[in-house]
Amino acid sequence: MEATKLVLSGKNPETFKGDLLVYCLEQPTKGKVKADHPLINNWLKAHGKLGEFSGKTGETLVLYPDKNQDEGFKVKRLMFLGIGKSDKKLGTSELRERCRIAGGHVAAQAMRVKADKIMVCLPELDGIKAGDVAETIVEGVILGDYRFLKYKKEDKDEPSYNGLNELRLYSNDPTITVRKNMMSGLRSAQAACKARDMANEPGNGWTPASFAAVGRDLAEQYGLQCTVLERADMEHLGMGGLLAVNQGSVEPPKMVILEYNPPKKTQTLLLVGKGLTFDSGGVSIKPSAGMEDMKYDMCGGAAVLAMMQAVGEEQPDVGVIAIVPATDNMPSGAALKPGDIITHYNGITSEVVNTDAEGRLILADAMAYGIKKFKPDCVVDLATLTGAVIVGLGHHYTGLLGNNDELVKRLLRAGKRCGEPLWRLPLGSQYSKQIESKVADIKNTGGPGAGTITAAAYLEKFVGDTPWAHLDIAGTAWNYTEKSYVPQGPSGVGVRTLIEFIRRWRKTGI
Ligand code: BES
Ligand code: MN
Ligand code: ZN
């Protein structure tokens, strides 16, 4: 799919000659739906009488204007899209999400009619700035327009749709701010789609070497610095966790490090993403039903690398380092065994009780190494780490744990603004006690209770005093809450939240 061209226009929408022109309309609390356009109001009156359009979320009405008329619309199709009841109680984040959802519905309709060029008139809503509307509608359209068809043969009867070529936004006040916000929305959405592309690749199409290739590509494109640690480097450095998980595999492990160092750097953020390209469980093998979904166990790694695309484009004045420890987790005669004791990068020894609790083993090395080498002001890791987070939060919230209230607060806020909500869970010595081992410093499972917290308690051992937050995206990286702009497969969760977090990073530090 080609990248969509984005235009902000203040030109009368009646003159737009494309395939689809969209008006987003609120459902009024009383009376009939209204628009601030006389011709549209006439149409709405006529159809309103038939009870066909009330403005409910996702409701659409498509009309075909007569192009030969001297007056009126030149577009092929005119669409009214319901965006739900106006409500004074809604905050900015809820209204932003409403616009994103509207954008997703626009994309679905554009796909249905195989539209090439479309225009969306930005609705004027109380309680949200025009820039926020532009940003989030663009996000919704681009995220909703996403498909992954690489491995699908072309269907002769049904010609394929190449996606939107041009998206025009109409605003009656097309300021520079609105334009800037619109472009921010585009960059965030494109980065999330990049993460989805990586995640959609199956285990045989996406290996640790694929992560290394993406890192090198991004480095070349945006002048970042990419280093890939190979097995020999890991042996030399003593990264016993990543090496242990990789033991049963024929694919060599990689640790991909991508650095963005701005000229006048103030602070450094370290982002670590779990890049487990397929998780069979290893010798503690998983049940076969649903195991195919474990190709998505690299979504954290995909998110942090994809996010670096936006960093490269936006060149913020804070340094950003992304690290992806990458391997698959396979059983074999050479594989890691339950009971084995390993030594992590920082010297901590760990008893591997269950080889399926592998994510924490590879993250531990990556975080300890990243903190020692880059001395970051804070660390955020993203990982599809525990099934337990799905038991607790379902597929609607990402689990958030951390040792610093300010960092946690900023991430909660960023997630909320992006429609990717996070929910904080506690840490504490009671939980750390669950991972005490009789034979090593710690063990890699903490018993049946609080699986998400004991996994985070394991990671906590590797961050020292550095402010740190952990996002457990096992419930949200795929099968995410059904939304118009989120496809059924991988969601790209975390990418937009991290971009927002970096955009809002204040120089004051944590
Ligand atoms: N990748 C899985 C976690 C997971 C499970 C993600 C289901 C998405 C859906 C992780 O490596 C894992 O297997 N965790 C174990 C830990 C347990 C053995 C302590 C789990 O959650 O069952
Ligand atoms: Mn596992
Ligand atoms: Zn895993």
Automatic annotation (TrEMBL):
Mn(2+) 1 binds at residues 279, 356, 358. It comes from the Bacteria. Keywords: Aminopeptidase, Cytoplasm, Hydrolase, Manganese, Metal-binding, Protease. Its EC number is 3.4.11.1, 3.4.11.10. InterPro entries: Leucine_aapep/pepB, Macro_dom-like, Peptidase_M17_C, Peptidase_M17_leu_NH2_pept, Peptidase_M17_N. GO terms for biological process: proteolysis. GO terms for cellular component: cytoplasm. Its cofactor is Mn(2+). It is an enzyme of class 3 (hydrolase). GO terms for molecular function: manganese ion binding; metalloaminopeptidase activity. The active site is at residues 286, 360. Its main location: cytoplasm. The keyword Repeat does not apply. Mn(2+) 2 binds at residues 274, 279, 297, 358. It holds the Pfam family Peptidase_M17. It catalyses: Release of an N-terminal amino acid, Xaa-|-Yaa-, in which Xaa is preferably Leu, but may be other amino acids including Pro although not Arg or Lys, and Yaa may be Pro. Amino acid amides and methyl esters are also readily hydrolyzed, but rates on arylamides are exceedingly low; Release of an N-terminal amino acid, preferentially leucine, but not glutamic or aspartic acids. Residues 354-361 form the Cytosol aminopeptidase domain. It is found in: Cytoplasm. Binds 2 manganese ions per subunit. Presumably involved in the processing and regular turnover of intracellular proteins. Catalyzes the removal of unsubstituted N-terminal amino acids from various peptides. HAMAP family: Cytosol_peptidase_M17 (MF_00181). Belongs to the peptidase M17 family. This is Probable cytosol aminopeptidase. The gene is pepA.
